Amino acid sequence: MNPLLKRKEIYSVLELNNVVKGILNREFPDAVWIHGEIQDYNKNKYKQHIFFELCEKHPEIDQIIAKVTAVIFENKKDKIINLLKKPENRFELQDGIEVKLLCRVDLYPRSGNFMLIVEDIDPIYTIGKLAQNKQKIITELKAKGMLDKNKILTIPIVALNIGLITSYDSAAYYDFLDELKKSSYGFKICLFNSSMQGKNVEQDVCRAIEIFDRYDFLDVVVITRGGGSTADLSWFDNEKIAGRIALSRLPILSGIGHEINVTITDMAAHTFMKTPTAIAQFLTQNIKSFLSEIEDKTKQIIYTASNRMQSYNQELRILAVNTNRATIAFLRTHRENIVDKSSILKLGTHNFIDRVKTGIFNRRQIKSVSLSILKSAKSYIKNYENAVKIADPLNTVKRGFSITRTKEGMTVRSIKDVKIKEDLITTVFDGIIQSEVKRKEKKDGQ
Predict the structure, then answer these.
(1) pLDDT in tens, 370-402
(2) Minimal CA–CA distance to 80: which of 54, 52, 101?
(3) Fold type of domain 149-288
(4) Quick one: which of 157, 205, 221, 441 could link to 163 by a disulfide (CB 3.0–4.6 Å)?
(5) Least confident interval from 4-8, 230-234, 247-251, 407-411
(6) What is the pTM of this model?
(7) How many helices (H) and strands (E) are present in the chain, helices listed first?
């Protein structure tokens, strides 16, 4: 025991504190490295002297098993902050991150407060711990197949109804909405005001995804924030957030906002972009591409229909010409028979009239002969009418036959009438068929 403690039986509080301070100073004459998790830093970080707690947690559960007060005095504050701003470090001191600090162990006699006076920081330790923790989570998620589940989902082509997880009134919030407004598309946003930094990130983001999963009208969910340091983004290297994304029924789009760092949230999401603006552009471009495709297909349909109508009109003109030609040819062929029968009918009529005039027939005979002549004439005319109908090409087609013609309208009766690769038009009962000659083959013996 220190000899000073044996000199007096009774000490004042200040005396005791000074003795303890002396013991600490002798036991720790030099600064020592101490690691732990920062608590209560954020609420004091803008003060002249920054007081906070350095804690040790249980290795398996989120429970503090020891803590000590630490302080960064004004004369050291700028040095530490500037060190952390260097590109190779890129993180800020904040609650919840683990650090390695060079500290002097001291006690303030007036208050009896035991504390650590921070002299320096080892940024590599913090970055390494963050990376180590991140890699551990990634390995566990990969083993469970959790990083690919959301990617299997299909993003609707026209995703207009969006569940947005971000901090309300933040730069990320306005960047995302402003980019959507530029498109003039009818987007509808359902906002969940979430912590994007700190210990509440996990709870807020998981809760938001759970709520949005109940909304049938939503197409996608977007998680976005406006960038930040490595430590800021480490809140999204979270196993529970990644697991909740994997279980979501909705595609999750991530725009955490970092140029060089990909968070575990990004890895678990269906699609991720570097910034809120990029995510908004992704959604608007999908709709723009869809509308452009619709416009192209509409033009193609109109063009095809126009060509088809022109083709049908041409075929109908050819069919009308061919039908007219066939009818004229048939009538020309049977004209002589019609003329002969007409002459015979005319001569018979004259003979009949002459006989009537000469009194050869009586009234009853006249009536009988007249009816016989008329019946014979009607029968004869009916026969020729039927013959004309039978000869009509359209009636022939109705009986199950077809008529094949060349593009010039010539009827194909022999393989000699066509050439290989020549286009043909075939008329059937209910339409027209266009074809091309692939092969010609003669029948045996012909």
Answers:
(1) 677 677 767 767 776 776 666 666 666 566 677
(2) 101
(3) Rossmann fold (3.40.50)
(4) 221
(5) 4-8
(6) 0.56
(7) 11, 13
